[in-house]
What we know:
Helix content: 40-55%
Strand order of the largest sheet: 7-3-2-1-15-16-17
Structural class: alpha/beta
Mean pLDDT: 91
Largest sheet: 7 strands, mixed
Number of strands: 17
Shape: globular
Low-confidence stretches: none
Distance between the termini: 24 Å
Number of helices: 26
Amino acid sequence: MEPMKLKYLERMSxxxxxxxxxxxxxxxxxxxxxxxxxxxxxxxxxxxEYEAFSHVxxxxxxxxxxxxxxxxxxTMSQQEKKSLATLIYYPREKMALEKKKESDMExxxxxxxxxxxxxxKKTASKYTRSKVRKALPEDxxxxxxxxxTERSDVTDKESYYEQIIQTIIAIGRAEEFIVAxxxxxxxxxxxxxxxxxxxxxxxxxxxxxxxKLMTYHSLDIQWGNHxxxxxxxxxxxxxxxxxxxxxCARYGNLDILEDGYGINLLPLAxxxxxxxxxxxxxxxxIKGTNRLNPVEQELNKKMHKAITVIQFKLEGKLLMRRRxxxxxxxxxxxxxxxxxxxxxLGHKTYNMLDTYFPTxxxxxxxxxSREEREVVDRxxxxxxxxxxxxxxxxxxxxxxxxxxxxxxxxxYHGCIPLNEDGSFKEVSVYGxxxxxxxxxxxxxxxxxxxxxAVNEEERExxxxxxxxxxxxxxxxxxxxxxxxxxxxYFLEEKETHTEKKNPxxxxxxxxxxxxxxxxxxxxxxxxxxxxxGHVPVHHTAGESPIKCKGKILVIDGGFSKAYxxxxxxxGYTLIYNSWGMILAAHEPFTSTSxxxxxxxxxxxxxxxxxxxxxxxxxGETDTGIKLKxxxxxxxxxxxxxxxxxxxxxx
Length: 650
């Protein structure tokens, strides 16, 4: 035996010091391989919609309701099932309502506990006892395990279980026990969560979403361009910071920064009121849901315009400094005729909707004024030193990546940059060209350098590449020929607002291109898919999220309320369980209070993407591959013990 192999087996023998222990572990792992595959849940483009996201997470895109149907079939009415599902999603709030209308709460507790225990048994049945035990709430772990585990040694099982339940009620712990069971069901119904990008921007609660994700039991994140933008802001990249503040102002969400992250916006507000005091700022009205009073709206518009002008100045300077990005044509402030109030784009001249720019020097339009520089410096300091923001971004770094391969599925947020003929587009990144997988890999490494590189030059390259990933036509997370922010603010002509998509989106039905992408990322096997979001699927126009005969799934259906008029739905989510793939198209979520008081679950149309005749097992997953490797190593350890190469540690 090779010395290195023997050394490795010696280390393994510390964990499994005897033939008996190694043999037991092989038996355990072999048993796990034959269990049903755990359920995966895919969500993308959440865009700060915390309430809707939280509800979808609680109901597992209908997985909880499916378990209730499987357990109770026709023995419960639809209304009773609906009520039980609401209890599982919001146990404390639902019980508070029940106490107001129920005359015999003791009987209600008893019936409810029996029902929850049955649902719990069903959700736990596909996992090992060890895995279920780890998920159990500490306070009730022993009791729950007793109730959901079949006991062959108990003669009168019904009496045994009834006595446990009666005792729970008698000692006044029924409500806390119900909460524990409901949270356990939520925990077990989804084995692993995939977030395919764009947690941030547009909606009011991205910080709440991040708090929730940080407590989730098992997940991975593929960064979206909006997440990358916030990562750039946290790293201190000034163009990213200005853009983050601008988007928050655009959607009336400056309180995310002030209340959610404790970032002081007073310097910006003071500056805006000084320079735009008498400016109506008509181009800078709030987009989407407006929750502000008239005074707040006026201040928001002025801050919005102030930071927008600052953003365009900062971007212009960055594009001149980083000419290798090939985006100098997007520095537009020096194309404006400030006397005539027009701008020259290509071969056409357009009248501008707003011509009041008190801080722009036409001779040097990208230079920040002294006051603007002070605002930027204070914002940079606030973002870089915000403890909560830094924790959230470190979590994105730890759990996130540009792409992920999981159980033969290739996950990424946006696209693979392609040429017009469908071949991989070569993109220059700091003097070297990359395409396909290598482009994703190099961008991933630079994202991390923005936070961890010791060399300051490399760290600055990392910071600047975050802005490139956010808005470059060559970015796989953006995938359009331009970000027409300037034109949407200042030009009426819709032709200037058009953002042409990368050819990737024309090839979504081309099986040859799909196979080439999967091969590029070394995703092989019969059941393989590309799953991504980023560009909303227009459900009302008849567009399907299922592309290329099911090989590509584009699951952005418009979680963001700002997009729901266009898409006609409130987002797609995907469930991949042991029987196959189910795509859910969700109707808009009204509110958490409606979900509790009216028991209004998110209504979803279910689309069967793929179904197998035989349940997929753990042995057929990535986890199964690792377990098989472990079994092979343990078998080698057994052989070493039996051949006398290693001595048991009795």
